[in-house]
C-alpha cells in the first residue's frame, strides 16, 4: 500500500497551504518550480517551505485530514506546525 501524506507549506508571505501527496520532496519542488505543477495559490507566494507533514493510510484518509486542517483557524495551524501535533479535540465522524 502506498503512503499518502498531508502536508503544510509556509509561503513567502507567511500564509499556509495544505495539500496531499505521495512524495513530499517532489511536491515541495513542484510548488517552488517555474512550471504549472504547483498549486495556483503558491505560484504567487514563492518560495514555499515544507513545515509539517503526517502519514495517512490511503488517499481517502489523507483527503479527509486535509479537509480538517483547512478548516482550522490560523492560530490553530500555527500551533499544529509548532508542536507537531493536533491541538483541537478529535473531530467526530
Task: Explain what the structure shows.
- This protein has 93 residues and is α+β, with helices and mostly antiparallel strands.
- It has one domain (4-83): 3-Layer(aba) Sandwich (GIY-YIG endonuclease), CATH 3.40.1440.
- It contains four helices and three strands.
- It has helices at residues 24-32, 40-43, 59-70, 74-83, and strands at residues 4-10, 16-21, 49-56.
- The protein has a three-stranded antiparallel sheet, with helices on both faces.
- The longest helix is centred in the C-terminal third of the chain and has 12 residues, at 59-70.
- The model is unreliable at 87-93 (pLDDT under 50).
Distance between the termini: 24 Å
Helices and strands, in order, run as EEHHEHH
> Which residues form runs of ≥5 with pLDDT under 50?
87-93
Q: Count every beta strand, where a strand is a DSSP E run of 2 or more residues.
A: 3
The order of strands across the largest sheet is 2-1-3
Amount of helix: 25-40%
Q: How much is the average pLDDT?
A: 89
Number of helices: 4
Please give a quick description of this structure.
It is built from four helices and three strands. By secondary structure, the protein is of the alpha+beta class.
SSE blueprint:
Elements: E1 4-10, E2 16-21, H1 24-32, H2 40-43, E3 49-56, H3 59-70, H4 74-83
Antiparallel strand pairs: 1-2, 1-3
Main attributes of the structure:
3 strands; three-stranded antiparallel sheet; GIY-YIG endonuclease; 4 helices; alpha+beta; disordered C terminus; globular; 23% strand; 93 residues
Amino acid at each position: 500500500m502506498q503512503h499518502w501524506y498531508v502536508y503544510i507549506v509556509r509561503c513567502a508571505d507567511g500564509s499556509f497551504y495544505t495539500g496531499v501527496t505521495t512524495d513530499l520532496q517532489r511536491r515541495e519542488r513542484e510548488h517552488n518550480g517555474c512550471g504549472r505543477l504547483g498549486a495556483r495559490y503558491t505560484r504567487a507566494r514563492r518560495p514555499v517551505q515544507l513545515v509539517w507533514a503526517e502519514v495517512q493510510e490511503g488517499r481517502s484518509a489523507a483527503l479527509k485530514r486535509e479537509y480538517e486542517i483547512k478548516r482550522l483557524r490560523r492560530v490553530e495551524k500555527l500551533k499544529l506546525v509548532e508542536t507537531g501535533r493536533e491541538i483541537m479535540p478529535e473531530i467526530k465522524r
